[in-house]
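### Sample
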Amino acid sequence: MSASSSESRLSRLLPAPLNIPPQEWLRAAFGALLGLFLAGWLTSLAYGPGIALHLLGPLAASAVLVFAVHSGPLAQPWSVVGSYALAGAVGLAMRQGLGSELWVAAVALGLSLVLMCLLRCLHPPGGGVAVSAVLADAGLTALGDHLLEPVLLDALILVTVAVIYNRMTGVRYPKGAAPRNEPHHTHDPLPSQRVGVSSQDLDQALDELGEFVDVTRDELQRIILATEQNALQRSLGGITAASVMSRDVQFATPDTTLEQAWAMLASHHLKTLPVLERGKLVGIVSLSDLVGPAMQRGRFGWQGLFGRKTVRMAQVMSRRVVSVSGQHPLERLLPLLCEQGLHCLPVLEGERLVGVVTQTDLIAGLKRQILNGSDQRVPAL
């Protein structure tokens, strides 16, 4: 047998890499240590060390999930608290009704599993809680119906520590649905989601798979979108903002009047104007910024008898400007111009305005890339 075939067979036997950076290992390890210690310590103060130690096994497994696999559905707060309460109640009822035999513990585990799936709180350590309740030692047995109290206290303390620690270390937990960006406040999907994999496609694929997948649909959609973004970056071949930007930039100043801005937009067929003061970008003005003041100017009123006050760009411009550098890759411009409602991106070198990228510039750059990557060539005229 050749060395290469042996290595290939060995690689198939090895588990797949976790794709978790080492700093995340350390972050999760310290969080699990902290959560387990605080929950065990506080429970031992309230109910005694013996009871706290008896429940420590399932708690340690839960700590691994909520700190190391925090994005999965098995690690969410409802999964932890719900499974502990449900499994603890099932185990307590089975022990009181059928005794503390091994088969009773096995039945309690199976019943807890079905109920956890039914109530959408599947959490593997919950099975350990059910078994621990059935096979409880004398200290736990003495609690009687109050057995659920230390069980729930453990779960609540662990979840509280997980929420605080994960958020302090930059991790969004619990993992709720990501807020949807709706610049137009309509029911239409975002432009980037109208073609490609949809939420309905993911639901259908998961149903057809017929197996449990330890990832939420939102997380799966994020993975697919990130994969598409990397593929787009590779296919665009390093096109940057400097490659597609307009360099002859029409701009206003803070002292530019409303009439002058309208004339510039109309004569150059533009929708936005950067506002410069002493060569520095200080704002941006769009058609929507000018419509309100223009309508106010057009209304008849007693002020018109004494002349109308001049409206200047300093009064109507948006001072928060999203800008990019010339090296900004084209694929990173797409969400800014397609989903965030921006029509123009100023391109800066340091603090100097060197160009703007509009939606028209973006479309022209994508068209050129499609033509360059196509096997068909446009015939010369």
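The first helix runs from residue 3 to 13. This sample (HPP family protein) is used throughout the tutorial notebook.
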